[in-house]
Amino acid sequence: MSWPAVPLRATLGDWAGRTIAIGGKGDLNTPTTALLQIGTVRRDGQVRVAYVDMAHQKLDPPDEVFLPADLTISEAVLGLAHVRPDRAALPPRVKGLGERTKRRGIQALGAVTGVVIVLAMVLQLPELYMVAAINVMAGGVTLMLPKSWQTGIKPRVIDGSREVFASGVYAQLTVDETAADPARLSPRSRVDLVKERLGALRGDIVYRIENSALFDAAVPQTQRLELALMAWDEMSPDVAALATEVEAAFDDARRHAEELGLDHLPETARDSGRRAARAAHAALHGDTEGERETARRRVADILSSLTLYYLPPVDPSTPSLIGQRKQIEPR
Q1: Surface-to-core class of residue 73, CB atoms within 10 Å of its CB (0-12 exposed, 13-18 middle, 19+ buried)
Q2: How many CB atoms lie within 10 A of CB 68?
Q3: For burial by CB atoms within 10 Å, which of 14, 42, 139, 158 has the most?
Q4: What is the Cα–Cα distance from 239 to 115, expressed in whole angstroms?
Q5: Lowest-pLDDT choice from 9-18, 101-110, 174-183, 284-293
Q6: Residue-by-residue DSSP string for 173-224
């Protein structure tokens, strides 16, 4: 029996608080599955989404992003996972997706440590300093843990008493007949879809910092993508082959950039890149306006100091933080 179907044209807000399994064509045009855990809609109209591509979960542990609640499920998957979706459903139960050590937990530990230190000073009890030191070490170890450790176990889909693996999840998903099958799209629509996906990534400042190779024309895979887009001609007799090359080049360039990550940056710039990515995330999703404003200035300062042409220009006054390039990028 199939699981309850989910329309791909529904918005993230429509399914807030639920976890959805999505299937479609992934790398090498093979069937694959992604999982999305959608949080509640925030006051700023965004939702937290924890996602994982089940075909890549050994390489990419679940991550979290904030997305507009009015984004469709299909659009979210196209932007986040290595999947072109054509089916979706509600799995019975998902374990281990989005179970991450929370920053507020670290903050609470810090507050407790502060109280312990004050008590140690007031009561003159040296033993309490040892308790404070243990708390500090525990918090530090937690922050240094790799993302996969912070997440806990790998995401698992449970149906009754048995675990369902990726191929079994895919088999349970109901095809969404209203969703456009990329294989049936016109060549122009296929290329337009790639351009939309590339544009969404280009507008995500955190992604651009963490996966900058996708935007560096000196990288062979990215150069192939740019050449494929330049060669695209809707009137060509080989229009289908040209569209296929655009799709393949995009998938290859994106996969290569995500495998490299921050290692694409010069070695001396990688720590700054990590700080810039964290600051950019805080600038977009900080709890207070003061925190966001401080982070906006910080990411602008860091990226301007790096002067790497493939990193995004920053405008702290724009919602996306991405400004206009003021000089011609080298080719």
Answers
A1: buried
A2: 15
A3: 139
A4: 69
A5: 101-110
A6: PPB-TTSPPGGGS-HHHHHHHHHHHHHHHHT-HHHHHHTGGGG-TTSHHHHH
- Cα(96)–Cα(179) distance, integer angstroms: 29
Greatest alpha-carbon span in the chain: 86
Residue 171: partners with Cβ closer than 8 Å, 6 or more residues away: none
Q: Are 91 and 21 in contact (CB under 8 A)?
A: yes
All residues at 6 or more sequence positions from 211 whose CB lies less than 8 Å from its CB, including other chains: 201, 254, 257, 258, 260, 261, 264
Asked if 317 and 298 count as a contact pair (C-beta separation under 8 A), the reply is no
Give the distance from CA 72 to its chain's centroid: 16
Tokens 């090498």, residue?
A: 28
What token pair was written down for 266?
A: 């010069």
Q: Are 280 and 320 in contact (CB under 8 A)?
A: no
The arithmetic mean of pLDDT across residues 241-251, rounded, is 93
pLDDT of residue 232 exceeding 60: yes
Check: CB of residue 147 under 8 Å from CB of residue 50.
Answer: no
Residue 144 Cα to chain centre, angstroms: 20
287/63 Cα distance (integer angstroms): 19
> pLDDT (tens digit, 9 = 90+) per residue, 135-158?
556 555 555 444 444 444 467 788
Q: Report how far apart, in Å, the C-alpha atoms of 170 and of each of 17, 25, 35, 61, 320 are.
A: 22, 11, 11, 19, 35
> What is the spatial distance between Cα 74 and Cα 180, in angstroms, rounded to a whole number?
10
SS3 content of the chain, % helix, strand, coil (to 5): 50, 15, 30
**pLDDT, average across residues 119-141:** 62
Domain ranges of the chain: 13-98+155-166, 103-144, 185-306
pTM: 0.56
Q: Within its chain, how far is the Cα of 79 from the centroid? A: 8
CA dist 100 and 320 (Å) reads 25
DSSP state of 42: P
